Amino acid sequence: MHKLLHWVVAAAVIFQLYLGFELGDLPQESAERLGVLRWHATIGVTIFVLMLVRLAWRLTHAVPPAPTTLGPRLARVARAVHIAFYVVLLILPLSGLSLVAGASDRVPVLGIELPGFGPVSEALRGTLWLIHATVAIATSVMVVGHVCAAVRHAMLRDGTFSRMLPGG
Ligand code: HEM
Ligand code: HEM
To answer: pLDDT tens digits, residue range 33-58?
Structure first.
Protein backbone atom coordinates (compact mmCIF):
# COMPACT_ATOMS: atom_id res chain seq x y z
CA MET A 1 0.00 0.00 0.00
CA HIS A 2 2.83 2.43 0.91
CA LYS A 3 4.72 1.50 -2.30
CA LEU A 4 1.61 1.86 -4.46
CA LEU A 5 0.96 5.31 -2.95
CA HIS A 6 4.61 6.29 -3.58
CA TRP A 7 4.24 5.64 -7.32
CA VAL A 8 0.76 7.20 -7.61
CA VAL A 9 1.97 10.36 -5.83
CA ALA A 10 5.24 10.40 -7.85
CA ALA A 11 3.35 10.35 -11.17
CA ALA A 12 0.84 12.94 -9.90
CA VAL A 13 3.59 15.31 -8.66
CA ILE A 14 5.53 15.19 -11.94
CA PHE A 15 2.33 15.92 -13.92
CA GLN A 16 1.33 18.60 -11.39
CA LEU A 17 4.67 20.42 -11.76
CA TYR A 18 4.23 20.34 -15.54
CA LEU A 19 0.67 21.77 -15.26
CA GLY A 20 1.87 24.44 -12.81
CA PHE A 21 4.66 25.72 -15.06
CA GLU A 22 2.19 25.57 -17.98
CA LEU A 23 -0.13 27.90 -15.97
CA GLY A 24 2.60 30.52 -15.80
CA ASP A 25 2.74 30.65 -19.62
CA LEU A 26 -1.03 31.03 -20.22
CA PRO A 27 -2.67 34.49 -20.36
CA GLN A 28 -4.52 35.51 -17.15
CA GLU A 29 -8.33 35.09 -17.26
CA SER A 30 -8.13 32.96 -20.48
CA ALA A 31 -10.46 29.96 -20.75
CA GLU A 32 -7.48 27.70 -21.36
CA ARG A 33 -5.78 28.85 -18.14
CA LEU A 34 -8.95 28.23 -16.14
CA GLY A 35 -9.21 24.73 -17.68
CA VAL A 36 -5.61 23.88 -16.70
CA LEU A 37 -6.09 25.48 -13.26
CA ARG A 38 -9.18 23.31 -12.64
CA TRP A 39 -7.08 20.15 -13.16
CA HIS A 40 -4.12 21.63 -11.25
CA ALA A 41 -6.32 22.39 -8.23
CA THR A 42 -8.04 18.99 -8.26
CA ILE A 43 -4.82 16.96 -8.65
CA GLY A 44 -3.11 19.17 -6.03
CA VAL A 45 -5.80 18.54 -3.42
CA THR A 46 -5.71 14.80 -4.23
CA ILE A 47 -1.94 14.83 -3.61
CA PHE A 48 -2.61 16.59 -0.27
CA VAL A 49 -5.05 13.87 0.85
CA LEU A 50 -2.74 11.04 -0.33
CA MET A 51 0.21 12.62 1.53
CA LEU A 52 -1.84 12.74 4.75
CA VAL A 53 -2.64 9.01 4.27
CA ARG A 54 1.07 8.29 3.58
CA LEU A 55 2.13 10.29 6.63
CA ALA A 56 -0.31 8.39 8.86
CA TRP A 57 0.94 5.06 7.44
CA ARG A 58 4.61 6.07 7.75
CA LEU A 59 4.23 7.16 11.38
CA THR A 60 2.54 3.92 12.39
CA HIS A 61 4.65 1.36 10.46
CA ALA A 62 8.31 0.34 10.65
CA VAL A 63 10.33 0.60 7.40
CA PRO A 64 13.56 -1.28 6.51
CA PRO A 65 16.77 0.48 7.67
CA ALA A 66 18.64 2.70 5.19
CA PRO A 67 21.23 0.85 3.08
CA THR A 68 24.84 1.12 4.29
CA THR A 69 26.28 1.43 0.75
CA LEU A 70 26.23 5.24 0.67
CA GLY A 71 27.60 6.00 4.14
CA PRO A 72 26.02 7.85 7.07
CA ARG A 73 26.23 11.35 5.58
CA LEU A 74 24.29 10.48 2.40
CA ALA A 75 21.84 8.44 4.46
CA ARG A 76 21.12 11.61 6.46
CA VAL A 77 20.67 13.63 3.25
CA ALA A 78 18.26 11.00 1.89
CA ARG A 79 16.27 11.04 5.13
CA ALA A 80 16.11 14.84 5.11
CA VAL A 81 14.88 14.88 1.48
CA HIS A 82 12.23 12.23 2.24
CA ILE A 83 10.95 14.25 5.22
CA ALA A 84 11.09 17.45 3.12
CA PHE A 85 8.88 15.78 0.48
CA TYR A 86 6.11 15.38 3.06
CA VAL A 87 6.50 19.04 4.12
CA VAL A 88 6.55 20.59 0.61
CA LEU A 89 3.70 18.39 -0.65
CA LEU A 90 1.52 19.69 2.19
CA ILE A 91 2.62 23.36 1.82
CA LEU A 92 2.02 23.41 -1.97
CA PRO A 93 -1.67 22.44 -1.91
CA LEU A 94 -2.35 24.75 1.08
CA SER A 95 -0.68 27.76 -0.57
CA GLY A 96 -2.34 26.85 -3.90
CA LEU A 97 -5.76 26.65 -2.26
CA SER A 98 -5.16 30.06 -0.65
CA LEU A 99 -4.20 31.50 -4.06
CA VAL A 100 -7.46 30.22 -5.57
CA ALA A 101 -9.61 31.20 -2.57
CA GLY A 102 -8.18 34.74 -2.69
CA ALA A 103 -8.50 35.17 -6.47
CA SER A 104 -11.22 36.83 -8.51
CA ASP A 105 -11.28 33.92 -11.02
CA ARG A 106 -11.95 30.96 -8.69
CA VAL A 107 -12.18 27.37 -9.90
CA PRO A 108 -13.96 24.37 -8.36
CA VAL A 109 -11.75 21.88 -6.52
CA LEU A 110 -12.72 18.20 -6.98
CA GLY A 111 -15.90 19.60 -8.56
CA ILE A 112 -16.78 21.56 -5.39
CA GLU A 113 -17.04 25.38 -5.34
CA LEU A 114 -15.05 26.26 -2.23
CA PRO A 115 -15.83 29.47 -0.33
CA GLY A 116 -13.38 32.26 -1.15
CA PHE A 117 -12.06 35.22 0.81
CA GLY A 118 -11.00 37.33 -2.13
CA PRO A 119 -10.05 39.09 -4.14
CA VAL A 120 -7.15 39.72 -1.76
CA SER A 121 -4.67 42.60 -2.05
CA GLU A 122 -1.97 42.43 -4.70
CA ALA A 123 0.67 42.28 -1.92
CA LEU A 124 -0.91 39.20 -0.27
CA ARG A 125 -1.46 37.54 -3.64
CA GLY A 126 2.19 38.23 -4.51
CA THR A 127 3.37 36.66 -1.23
CA LEU A 128 1.20 33.56 -1.69
CA TRP A 129 2.41 33.22 -5.26
CA LEU A 130 6.05 33.60 -4.17
CA ILE A 131 5.62 30.86 -1.53
CA HIS A 132 3.87 28.54 -4.02
CA ALA A 133 6.33 29.15 -6.87
CA THR A 134 9.49 28.96 -4.70
CA VAL A 135 8.38 25.75 -2.99
CA ALA A 136 7.41 24.32 -6.41
CA ILE A 137 10.89 25.07 -7.78
CA ALA A 138 12.50 23.54 -4.65
CA THR A 139 10.29 20.46 -5.16
CA SER A 140 11.45 20.17 -8.80
CA VAL A 141 15.09 20.24 -7.65
CA MET A 142 14.34 17.60 -4.98
CA VAL A 143 12.61 15.36 -7.55
CA VAL A 144 15.66 15.53 -9.85
CA GLY A 145 18.04 14.74 -6.95
CA HIS A 146 15.77 11.94 -5.70
CA VAL A 147 15.51 10.32 -9.15
CA CYS A 148 19.32 10.56 -9.60
CA ALA A 149 19.74 8.88 -6.20
CA ALA A 150 17.22 6.15 -7.15
CA VAL A 151 19.12 5.48 -10.41
CA ARG A 152 22.41 5.33 -8.47
CA HIS A 153 20.88 2.79 -6.06
CA ALA A 154 19.65 0.75 -9.03
CA MET A 155 23.20 0.78 -10.49
CA LEU A 156 24.73 -0.23 -7.13
CA ARG A 157 22.11 -3.01 -6.85
CA ASP A 158 21.99 -2.45 -3.08
CA GLY A 159 18.32 -3.44 -2.88
CA THR A 160 17.05 0.12 -2.26
CA PHE A 161 15.46 0.50 -5.67
CA SER A 162 13.99 -3.00 -5.81
CA ARG A 163 12.41 -2.64 -2.37
CA MET A 164 10.17 0.08 -3.80
CA LEU A 165 8.97 -2.34 -6.53
CA PRO A 166 6.08 -4.81 -6.05
CA GLY A 167 7.40 -7.87 -4.21
CA GLY A 168 10.66 -6.09 -3.32
C1 HEM B 1 8.26 12.74 -8.10
C2 HEM B 1 7.80 12.57 -6.94
C3 HEM B 1 8.38 11.65 -5.89
C4 HEM B 1 8.20 11.85 -4.57
C5 HEM B 1 7.41 12.98 -3.92
C6 HEM B 1 8.88 10.78 -3.87
C7 HEM B 1 8.94 10.65 -2.49
C8 HEM B 1 9.58 9.65 -1.80
C9 HEM B 1 9.65 9.53 -0.37
C10 HEM B 1 9.02 10.52 0.62
C11 HEM B 1 10.35 8.40 -0.10
C12 HEM B 1 10.71 7.87 1.28
C13 HEM B 1 9.81 6.74 1.65
C14 HEM B 1 8.66 7.26 2.39
O15 HEM B 1 8.82 7.64 3.54
O16 HEM B 1 7.55 7.33 1.82
C17 HEM B 1 10.75 7.81 -1.34
C18 HEM B 1 11.47 6.65 -1.48
C19 HEM B 1 11.95 6.16 -2.68
N20 HEM B 1 11.70 6.67 -3.94
FE21 HEM B 1 10.59 8.29 -4.35
N22 HEM B 1 9.48 9.94 -4.78
C23 HEM B 1 9.19 10.44 -6.04
C24 HEM B 1 9.58 9.91 -7.26
C25 HEM B 1 10.40 8.80 -7.40
C26 HEM B 1 10.88 8.28 -8.67
C27 HEM B 1 10.51 8.85 -10.05
C28 HEM B 1 11.68 7.20 -8.37
C29 HEM B 1 12.43 6.30 -9.30
C30 HEM B 1 13.05 6.66 -10.38
C31 HEM B 1 11.68 7.05 -6.93
C32 HEM B 1 12.36 6.06 -6.24
C33 HEM B 1 12.36 5.89 -4.88
C34 HEM B 1 13.07 4.81 -4.19
C35 HEM B 1 13.93 3.75 -4.84
C36 HEM B 1 12.80 4.99 -2.82
C37 HEM B 1 13.28 4.10 -1.67
C38 HEM B 1 14.26 4.75 -0.77
C39 HEM B 1 14.41 3.94 0.50
O40 HEM B 1 13.82 2.87 0.62
O41 HEM B 1 15.15 4.40 1.38
N42 HEM B 1 10.91 8.03 -6.37
N43 HEM B 1 10.27 8.60 -2.37
C1 HEM C 1 1.57 19.19 -4.94
C2 HEM C 1 0.80 20.14 -5.31
C3 HEM C 1 1.18 21.28 -6.22
C4 HEM C 1 2.29 21.50 -7.02
C5 HEM C 1 3.52 20.60 -7.19
C6 HEM C 1 2.11 22.78 -7.67
C7 HEM C 1 3.01 23.35 -8.57
C8 HEM C 1 2.84 24.58 -9.18
C9 HEM C 1 3.79 25.21 -10.07
C10 HEM C 1 5.12 24.60 -10.52
C11 HEM C 1 3.30 26.41 -10.44
C12 HEM C 1 3.96 27.46 -11.36
C13 HEM C 1 4.71 28.47 -10.54
C14 HEM C 1 5.46 29.41 -11.46
O15 HEM C 1 4.85 30.00 -12.35
O16 HEM C 1 6.68 29.56 -11.26
C17 HEM C 1 2.00 26.55 -9.82
C18 HEM C 1 1.17 27.63 -10.00
C19 HEM C 1 -0.11 27.71 -9.46
N20 HEM C 1 -0.72 26.80 -8.63
FE21 HEM C 1 0.09 25.06 -7.96
N22 HEM C 1 0.89 23.32 -7.28
C23 HEM C 1 0.30 22.43 -6.41
C24 HEM C 1 -0.95 22.56 -5.83
C25 HEM C 1 -1.86 23.56 -6.11
C26 HEM C 1 -3.23 23.61 -5.65
C27 HEM C 1 -3.92 22.56 -4.77
C28 HEM C 1 -3.78 24.75 -6.15
C29 HEM C 1 -5.17 25.31 -5.99
C30 HEM C 1 -6.16 24.77 -5.35
C31 HEM C 1 -2.75 25.44 -6.91
C32 HEM C 1 -2.91 26.66 -7.53
C33 HEM C 1 -1.98 27.28 -8.31
C34 HEM C 1 -2.19 28.55 -8.96
C35 HEM C 1 -3.45 29.42 -8.88
C36 HEM C 1 -1.03 28.82 -9.69
C37 HEM C 1 -0.76 29.98 -10.64
C38 HEM C 1 -0.23 31.16 -10.00
C39 HEM C 1 -0.19 32.25 -11.07
O40 HEM C 1 0.59 32.11 -12.02
O41 HEM C 1 -0.98 33.17 -10.94
N42 HEM C 1 -1.59 24.67 -6.88
N43 HEM C 1 1.75 25.43 -9.05
So the answer is: 999 999 999 999 999 999 999 999 99
